[in-house]
Amino acid sequence: MPHRKNTAEMAPVRLPPPETVVIPMSMHIGAPAVPAVKVGDTVKVGQLIAEAGGFVSSPVYASVSGKVKKIDEIPASNGRKMKAVVIASDGLMEPWEGIARPEVKDFESFVAAVRSSGVVGLGGAGFPTAVKLGVKDLSKVEAFIINGAECEPYVTSDTRTMLDRLDDLKDGVALLEKYMEAKRIIFGVEANKPRCIEALRSAFSSDSRVEINALPPMYPQGGEKVLIYNTTGRIVPEGKLPLDAGAIVLNVTTLASIARYINTGMPLVEKVVTVDGSAVAEPKNVIAPIGTPARALFEFCGGFKEEPCKVLYGGPMMGIAMPDADLPIMKNTNAVLALNEADSRLPKPTACIRCGTCVDVCPLGLMPTLIEDAYERGDGQRLKELKVNLCMECGSCAYACPAKRPLVQVHKLAKGILNVYNAKLKAEAEKKAAKEAAK
Amino acid sequence: MNGLLTVTPSPHIRSPRTTRSIMRDVLIALIPVVIVAVVYFGWRALLLICVSGAVSCLCEFIWEKAFKKDITISDLSSVVTGVILALNMPAGMPVWELIFGDICAVIVVKMLFGGLGRNFVNPALAGRIILFVSFTADMTNYTVPSFAPDALSSATPLALEGSLTWADFPSLLLGLHGGVIGEVCSLAIIAGCVYLCVRGVIKPIIPACFVGAELLFSWLFGAANPVLGVFSGGLLFGAVFMATDYVTSPLTNWGKVIFGVGCGFLTAAMRAFAGSNGAVSFAILIMNLLVPYINDITRRKAFGGVKAK
């Protein structure tokens, strides 16, 4: 697979304040945040604009100073609508007066601070970090794995974190050691980033609890289960969490963002985003306020040298093609790519020739060609046996398939069939139990 | 950026390898075998290869046209079938009989079962067996290259197995003996195998297990010289170009091991206890039929998966 890390050597450049930002309330897994501002309110950078909407949720902060223009509904990547707070910027980027370093003195106050930092899994998953760190029994965590694999082609924002934010990473590691009783912290970095590995090694040379693990540059090295296995040899069992394998995985930028909040009191309001792709005139790494429309980032990168036909939020393997470049970058957006016409076209699928390439490349040991057969027959039992539910949709099979079968799409649809089948089984079991109880 | 943007599910990049490029690699791997066939057996060998490739393509084209399906001959799979079938013919095979074989291979075995990827046995192999059963005399009328030494010139070396000695080994490697046009020269076949493995088109598992098992079992069954048996007859050609057909071989590495060993065992058994003619073909055919079951028992274990109820 091509790496295309064209922007790895480009230090991030700050985007001038955008005119408006559109800050979605669902930039994480879990309940949407609940807006805490009204139309017409004046806000400043770092000011709370939405509170966490539940336990698995995350607060949202203003990324520019200005006035709340409206509270709108915008399209989400899953095709539904989501709420978003639209702020008209005054161009001043004034920080909020209430910014203050959080008081952190023990595990509970640390997790509380992570919660109020607004940090979620910045590698892409967007799982609220405080929920992940809020473990009941710290002795169960044998290793913290810091994910710097960044295996998606094009994307280099985590690379920049490892090169430019070593102090934040050092502070983050110190926080984990102090408040999470971390005994072992493993940085997992793909070997195609030798500068990052070198920088991390020299930064942590005096800390025996920290290991820097150079991993083979092979997609999907940064997949959570893959990374845990390749760094610790542990396998996360089906239906269980990484914690059940003794591991907590944090993305490098997630860790750096936690440290920044605890050091400065400034919550997560901006993101380094890789702007690249065959249609972009001058690819760059850009520091952009969260909620900036992707279009503003493309314009900042010299606009387009070719007519863009596809715009991706994220990398080309798991990123989402959106219908509209006006949609904002979110907490977990690490790249926006604009592809030209040739790169946007996907080859036409032809008949499966059973070459078994998909079976060879699946990092989770699944058999995509058999899953496709079972899907076409609508065979729920077989899909259950073939474990399609474990598929993380990394795209390795669809990438490698010589017949260009849309295997990821098939797996997504097959999961739907499996869910219906499981629900049917459950209903039948309940019916049977009720009948027996009646007897 | 005023035009509409394309929205597709991920992934948004695809590898350059296609079915067509794989089939093209198989054809390239066959070049040494084809050259040897033409040099040893003259222009008639080339005629057979060209006619067979063309007729196979035409069959697929006519079928797809007749049933208003997308024309898929550009994937080159039918050309591969035709060329491989032709390479299984003795040089004197009547052309119309070969054409009959092509029609059986492409129409009956491949298209009737749903086209590429849906056939349950290797089309070229089935075509060969149909011809073998229908026209046994023509199919076993082996021609000898004009410059072959006398020792090996009477029939295929397999028929002479008992009297073969190590002195004949160089002639076996170079193919200076009677046989079908594609199978005589072991070196050309090995060159093709190396190319396919280097290009990642096939893994060496099936050829290695096939040959290894045939060696072992023919030794157990008391063959005079098992090693020479490997280099005579259709074993190498079958192991490299017919048993490795994706559609009719197992998906997993362990499945390929079972498949290869099974082919080798059946070949050795048939050569030892039945006629030597067509042993390789029938062995592969039988193992082709077992592939779905092999796939089932060698399913990969999902990473961290717990057994489904």
Mean pLDDT of chain A: 94
Question: Which of globular, elongated, flat, extended, rod-shaped describes the shape of chain A?
Answer: globular
Rg from alpha-carbon coordinates of chain A? 22 Å
Largest sheet of chain A: 6 strands, mixed
**Reading side by side through the largest sheet of chain A, how are the strands ordered?**
1-14-13-17-15-16
Q: Total strand count of chain B, please?
A: 0
On the 0 to 100 scale, the average pLDDT of chain B is: 90
Strand portion of chain A, in percent? 15-25%
Proportion of β residues of chain B? Answer: under 5%
Shape of chain B: globular
**In angstroms, what is the radius of gyration of chain B?**
20 Å
- N/C terminus separation of chain B: 52 Å
The biggest beta sheet of chain B, please? none
Poorly predicted runs of 5 or more residues of chain B:
none
Number of helices of chain A: 14
Query: What is the helix content of chain A?
Result: 25-40%
Explain how this protein is built.
The complex is a heterodimer of chains A (439) and B (309). Chain A has 439 residues and is of the alpha/beta class. Chain A has a domain at 357-438. Chain A contains 14 helices and 17 strands. A 6-stranded mixed beta sheet of chain A has the order 1-14-13-17-15-16, sandwiched between helices. In chain A, strand 5 and strand 6 form a beta hairpin. In chain A, helix 4 packs across helix 7 (252-264) and helix 11 crosses helix 14. The N and C termini of chain A lie far apart (61 Å). The mean pLDDT of chain A is 94. With 309 residues, chain B is mainly α. Chain B folds into 2 domains: 19-152 and 170-201, no CATH class; 202-293, no CATH class. Classes of the chains: A alpha/beta (439), B mainly alpha (309).
Question: Which labels suit this protein?
Answer:
heterodimer, A: 439 residues, alpha/beta, 6-stranded mixed beta sheet, 4-stranded antiparallel beta sheet, 17 strands, globular, B: mainly alpha
